[in-house]
Amino acid sequence: MQQQTFPIVGRKPDVVISRVEGNLDVRAWEREEIQVTAQGEVGTLRQEGNTLHIAGSQGDLELFVPAIWKIVFPVSTSITASHVSQNVTVEQARKVALHTVGSRASLRNIAGNVELEQIGEVADMDNIGGNLRAAHVPTLRARHVGGNVTLLDTAHADVHAVGGNLGITRAAEVDCSTVGGNLDVDSVEGKLRVHAVGGNCEVRRSSAEVRIDTVGGNFVSDEGVRTGSCSVGGNLRAYVAEIGDARFHVGGQARVVLPERANATVRVMACGNISGPQGNFSRGPGMMTLVYGEGQGHITVTSGGNVSILGGGEPQVSGGFSADDMGKQMAEIGREWGRVGAEVGREMSRIGRDFGREMGRIGRDIQHEMRREWQRFDEWD
């Protein structure tokens, strides 16, 4: 075993690591130096200005790096590592980039951006302050990400809360609680489950079973996507591949496309026109029931604008307008949106409290240190 310590230069030291035959463990301490402990021989171990280079470790590698927040100008460390044969653990770094890790990657309390590529097994993260980009990761779990999340070729992803946008390209199964910005999905094969999206949502070229409870903006899905019930603040354009029991509450315009020769009963209540492939079923506010085939499946669409029901064949049409019924339906929509808004508000408030407590702690520490510095200045003066 060999151990060596390097003094840091500046407030943002960088560590660049490559070719580790074993595990890499990076932890933080409140010293202005980097300590390296190697269980085997190390080919390269040198410091150039603000950057420490480590390459060719023949065994496990352990580092202690500066993470000092209790001063006016905090010190934090950036970690870049590639070609690690086993596991990587990083805690309290400024930013992290990992490329080609043989087994697991575990990250916790990273202040800035995280980039992951070619992780052998599982990437597990908690509290990422910046953006997260992950490519070619079999299983990814992330609890809180403050910025945007981009996933590419990630088979299974479980992301609790994303402060910005979430973009997904080629995945098998994705589960996410809250997306603060937009959700953009391309080629998800199995399941897509999201509780709340603050912005717009688009799902393309996917055969997934989609369950998105709430979309604050517009929601668009193309043919092949199995779209379930959803509350949409903007416009809806959805293809319903498998008809069971679906409900769509839409603040704007709604366009629902049914498969050929559908077997469903579609109930529509709209503040605008209700139309099909051949033209309008009704003009102006109204309620309508459209029966396709034997009418076994059930779809309910309530919309603040126009509603278009396309595909499905030629329906039997019935219904009419009742101000009383319209009032009841609008009251139901109001109650639904009130419930949804309360749930989203509670979730975002809880996330805000978690981040707020941490930032408050850091702020108090900085203020305390500044007061101490001013006291020293006054005594000297």
List keywords for this structure.
single chain, 381 residues, alpha/beta, 32-stranded mixed beta sheet, 1 helix, 32 strands, 55% strand, elongated
Give the SSE map.
Elements (H helix, E strand, L loop, with lengths): L1 E6 L6 E7 L3 E6 L3 E6 L3 E7 L2 E7 L3 E6 L11 E7 L3 E4 L3 E7 L3 E6 L3 E6 L2 E7 L3 E14 L3 E14 L3 E14 L3 E15 L3 E4 L4 E7 L3 E3 L4 E2 L2 E3 L3 E4 L5 E6 L3 E5 L5 E7 L3 E3 L2 E4 L3 E7 L4 E7 L3 E5 L4 E3 L4 H58 L1
Parallel strand pairs: 2-6, 2-8, 3-7, 3-9, 8-10, 9-11, 10-12, 11-13, 12-14, 13-14, 14-15, 15-16, 16-17, 17-18, 17-19, 18-20, 19-21, 19-22, 20-23, 22-24, 23-25, 24-30, 25-31, 26-30, 27-31
Antiparallel strand pairs: 1-4, 4-7, 5-6, 26-29, 27-28, 29-32
Descriptive report:
- By secondary structure, the protein is of the alpha/beta class.
- Among the domains are: 1-103, no CATH class; 243-340, no CATH class.
- The chain is built from one helix and 32 strands.
- It has a 32-stranded mixed sheet that branches.
- Strand 27 (274-276) and strand 28 (279-282) form a beta hairpin.
- The longest helix is centred in the last third of the chain and has 58 residues, at 323-380.
